[in-house]
Write a structure and sequence with these properties.
Cofactor: Mg(2+)
Bound molecules: (R)-mevalonate
Distance between the termini: 14 Å
Helix content: 40-55%
Catalytic activity: (R)-mevalonate + ATP = (R)-5-phosphomevalonate + ADP + H(+)
Oligomer: single chain
Order of helices and strands: EEEEEHEHHHEEEHHHHEEHEE
Subcellular location: Cytoplasm
Number of domains: 2
Structural class: alpha+beta
Number of helices: 9
Strand content: 15-25%
Main location: cytoplasm
CATH topology of the largest domain: Ribosomal Protein S5, domain 2
Subunit structure: Homodimer.
Length: 330
């Protein structure tokens, strides 16, 4: 028996990093997905086949009971450790510790790009393996297990990435709880720098800065929380879409400046942000942990101009849509 599950990538529209300190954030699932097949194996081993994970040069082999990374290709090893934890957590939940599980992964989501590739692979693995064991988990239960996986692998996590990936749609999230927002079709362009950042390291860097200078850093984190509250009001208000986009764009630009101030932007990200604004985007900001990865621009009527501008400064544009569907058994 083989079970196939999938889960989407996400973008954080507002509130990354400050969400780790209990502030709210707004995020959406997008239409790139990771697919995971799960089956039992006779060897009582965890086997992970991940030929399609978009990290060049990865080779992974297996000992009897353990995954063994032939070489430590940083990012890929990090992704696979989410998969391993996800399998182990579901096995514990199902009380089936000796069972051998093989998972096979294929993904449309670039790794380390700030689009939640690790959360999506963890959520899809939890979906597939739990179904294999006959557990019927709700998306919320999958999200909780996904958060556990992130805490084990990363040390710190707000839980927003696995929650959006498991539940789908457009969410307002704070301290483990979420509220579904009406899906606003945002004319956006995601720009990938082609470089990646480690969420674990960036979260640790912000924490260090906060510990070193709480009087300077805490007001920035507080402001990020206020940006999110204003964004939520605007999303829920009865404005026409032109006014809505203009106000949201302004908040995106403020949020980007605050993320730069806490130390998670890079020249590559800022180049894409400024090129997008110059090409007509109303707003542009980092999405996700930063340190490389992706930004997104809000560009009503200007999506192709912004995509071209991103390409000219060396980025990779992606025109994506919000996905209403979270984790799914295929
Ligand atoms: C990463 O996508 C979002 C961060 O806020 C980390 C987290 O919330 O766990 C940087």
């Amino acid at each position: 028996m083989k079970v196939l599950a999938s889960a989407p990538a996400k973008i954080i529209l507002f509130g990354e990093h400050s969400v780790v300190y209990g502030k709210p954030a707004i995020a959406a699932a997008i239409d790139l997905r990771t697919y995971v097949w799960a089956s039992f194996n006779e060897k009582r081993a965890i086997k992970i086949e991940a030929k399609d994970i978009k990290v060049p040069g990865l080779t992974v082999s297996f000992s009897e009971n353990e995954i063994y990374f032939e070489s430590d290709y940083g990012k890929a090893a990090e992704v696979l450790s989410y998969v391993k934890q996800a399998i182990e957590i579901v096995r514990d939940e199902a009380d089936k510790n000796g069972k051998g599980i093989t998972v096979s992964i294929t993904s449309q989501i670039p790794v380390g790009a700030g689009l939640g590739s690790s959360a999506a692979v963890a959520v899809a693995t939890i979906g597939a393996v739990s179904k294999l064991f006959g557990l019927e988990l709700t998306p919320e239960e999958v999200a909780k297990l996904g958060h556990k996986v992130e805490l084990l692998v990363q040390g710190a996590s707000s839980g927003i990435d696995p929650t959006v990936s498991a539940v789908g749609g457009f969410l307002y999230y704070q301290k483990g709880s979420f509220e579904e927002l009406p899906v606003v079709e945002l004319p956006m362009v995601v720009g990938y720098t082609g470089t990646s950042g480690s969420t674990k390291e960036l979260v640790a860097k912000v924490r260090r800065n906060l510990n070193d200078m709480p009087d300077v850093m805490q007001p920035i984190i507080d402001s990020m929380g206020k940006v999110v509250e204003r964004a939520k009001e605007i999303i829920l208000a009865n404005y026409d879409s032109r006014i809505k986009f203009e106000l949201l764009g302004k908040l995106m630009n403020i949020n980007h400046g605050l993320l730069d101030a806490i130390g998670v932007s890079t020249k590559g990200l800022s180049d894409l942000v400024y090129a997008s604004r110059e090409a007509g985007a109303i707003g542009a900001k980092i999405t996700g942990a930063g340190g490389g990865g992706c930004m997104y621009a809000l560009a009503p009527g200007k999506q192709s101009e912004v995509a071209t501008a991103i390409r000219i400064v060396g980025g990779m544009p992606m025109i994506t849509k919000i996905s209403r569907e979270g984790v799914r058994i295929e």
